[in-house]
Each structure stands twice: as C-alpha cells, then as structure tokens.
TrEMBL record:
Membrane-related topology note: Multi-pass membrane protein
InterPro entries given in the database record: Mechanosensitive_channel_CS (IPR019823), MS_channel (IPR001185), MSC/AndL (IPR037673), MscL_channel (IPR036019)
Molecular function terms, GO-annotated: mechanosensitive monoatomic ion channel activity
Protein name: Large-conductance mechanosensitive channel
Keywords: Cell membrane, Ion channel, Ion transport, Membrane, Transmembrane, Transmembrane helix, Transport
Principal subcellular localization: membrane
Top-rank taxon, per record: Bacteria
Cited PROSITE patterns: MSCL (PS01327)
Entry-linked SUPFAM superfamilies: Gated mechanosensitive channel
Length: 133
C-alpha cells in the first residue's frame, strides 16, 4: 500500500496539480493586492460614503448591503482577473510566436501504422526494421 501511495503521489499529474495550487495561491495574493490597493480606493471615492454594506431591509433583516457588496467585490475581482489573464496572456503569446513550426517528433510505421519516434530504427509494435532516409 505504501508503494502504491508513493506511485500515486509522485505521478506527474499530482505534482502538476500541487504546483498549480501553489501558483494559484500566489496569484491570488497579487490579485487581492491589486484590488485592495488600486481598485477599491477608486471605488470608495465613487460610491456613497457611510456603512452601506451593513444596510438591511424589511423587518426580516435582509442584508441587502452585504449581498450588493459581495456582488460588487466579485465583479471587481473578475474584471481584474480578466485584464491580467486575458490581456497579459495575449501579450505573452505574441512574444512567443516566431513563425517557425515545431519539428516533427514522431512518424508512422509503414507496416502497422503505429506512431513511433522519428529516430526509431525498429517499430516497437511490430518490430519491423525501418528504412531511414
């Protein structure tokens, strides 16, 4: 059971997921700082003053201010994420384009139609000898 757990824990997908969670946490800190330090002061200057987030309605004490505040926070964070992810991602993609296609890494065996590496001299599926050109 320990060896199965070790195999599972060191599998590429699990390690990739762990890295993604850590990177997502770090990215969350950046987004939170941008929203809190840059966006919310502007929003605070535009919105009416007072304690509007604690506003209630009706005798049932429906917390409409809290709901509107949560919706506003979501929209602001979603906008910042869109700008950062979409626009910066587009700029990064433009930077990475060179116009050259990636070199071909595989070919098809003429006997069994199995995909094999370009450097292969023998097919791993049917063991036929491949002619190199």
């Amino acid at each position: 059971m320990l060896s199965e757990f070790k195999q599972f824990a060191l599998k590429g997908n699990v390690v990739d997921l762990a890295v993604a969670v850590v990177m997502g946490n770090a990215f969350s800190a950046i987004v939170t700082a941008v929203v809190a330090d840059l966006v919310m002061p502007v929003v605070g200057a535009v919105l009416p003053g007072g304690d509007w987030r604690n506003a209630t309605a009706t005798p049932l004490n429906l917390r409409l201010g809290h709901l509107l505040g949560a919706v506003l926070d979501f929209l602001i964070i979603a906008s910042v994420l869109f700008i950062v992810v979409a626009k910066v991602g587009q700029a990064w993609a433009k930077r990475g384009k060179k116009g050259e296609p990636a070199p071909v890494a595989t070919k098809v065996c003429p006997e069994c139609r199995e995909t094999i590496p370009v450097e292969a001299r023998r097919c791993r599926a049917c063991t036929s000898v491949l002619v190199t050109v």
